[in-house]
Amino acid sequence: MRRLITVLLISLSAFVLQGCMFDVQNAEIMRPPKLPTELESVKTALFDYYGGGLRLMNPSSGVLRAAIQFIDLNGDQQDEAVAFFKDENEQNALKAAILYKDESGVWETLAPIVGIGYDVDQVGFPDLNGDGNKEIVVGWLGGSSLSKGLSVYQANDGLTDFGGGTGVYEEIFREVYTNFHIVDMDLDGADELVTFLLSRPENRAEARLYTLDADGVSRQDSVTLSSDAHRYERMTSGLVEDGRYGIVLDASLTGGATFSEALVEIDGKLIKRFGVSGSSENAPTYRFDFRLTEDVDQNGWIEIPTLISPLGYDRVAKRDVPWITQWNRWDSEENLIPVMKTYDDQRLGFRVTMPLIWNDTVTLTRNDQGIAFVEVQEDGIKRVKILEVLVIKRSDADLADGQIKSLGYFELARTMNHYYYGKTFSNDALTSVEFGMSDDQLLEAFELLN
Ligand SMILES: [Ca+2]
Ligand SMILES: [Ca+2]
Ligand SMILES: [Ca+2]
Fold this sequence. Notes:
This protein has a domain at about 1-15 and about 360-450. Helix content is about 10%, strand content about 40%. The protein contains four helices and 28 strands. Strands 1, 2, 3, 4, 5 and 6 form a six-stranded antiparallel β-sheet that branches. About 35% of the residues are buried. One calcium ion binds near residues 72, 73, 74, 76 and 78.
């Protein structure tokens, strides 16, 4: 046991630099999960209706990944259910069933949408014309990843009572796409559908804006995007500039670097706010490592990440640098304004929010079991430790927990696989007492990355 602890601590203090793996999940769950009983009753209704011969299908991309989605389609505060499945009674035809609750609380099934292709890529439920009824957008996967088509389905009549079960969702629009995003960009109560097309062979990188009115779905505008993106990773919407909602598109390059482009809508036009023409390596948002945009401080404004190298890593290979993530707001003019910094350890799955008071004399060391923040003093010679985060495999931590704690570490969090411990150090030797953290401040600054 003593040996285990010694090994852990030696390896923590050793200055072993690790490469970084990309372990990012973009399953951002927007809605709370339904009660299991509700889900079961929808499944039962569905299996009864189809005689059991169906296989539920999860959408493979986007934010909504459940095979059965609960959504209030007609705005009466009562959720309907939309289920994606293959119907084995009809040669595995891909279908989407719409279920609603009748007056006695029983799930009733409408005639299904019959899909195109062999898999469900992405789904969304926008209210494209702002009438209070939601349309259904489904991206269907065809023969290859290049042949994805989205369809927009609209209810044939007002939807108020689903025609007593005779209501039908009709396909009103069909288009190719790579990713799509739904957001009310101009905040007029009607959602816009924005599609992204990325095709290297065709040298195409484009965003398109679609709206729905009495004449159907029409393309309002399109804008050309940076040409060297390899893949679109995520679209995030929120405030991007003064009073204006927009979409930030995160794109990756071959090799794992990422960059972002921001889109806003002005008078029905899609406007690209920054980004690049030519190589995105010159983009202001370019980052060597994989980082995705988020509203990191949860205030409605979207922050775009860039990376800065901590002190002392000038001669270290880029992939071995423990990058600090700087989160930036777009100032509506020309600049990205930093609002906060975090250290994101993608491999060990945690984030430490760095206090604003920390200047660039605070740096960090990393090994495969954690990190230590230190203040560099006396022209880079002296290093004074501020805090440590120690990450121990659960199987080891179960045995050594008591001893780890006896060495001054306290538990920050635990997951299925790891225990996370923190330790703070006395401020006496720091240039400023405020560079130091209390255990409570560290607990506050620490979070798990999922
Ligand atoms: Ca409803
Ligand atoms: Ca709108
Ligand atoms: Ca924010």
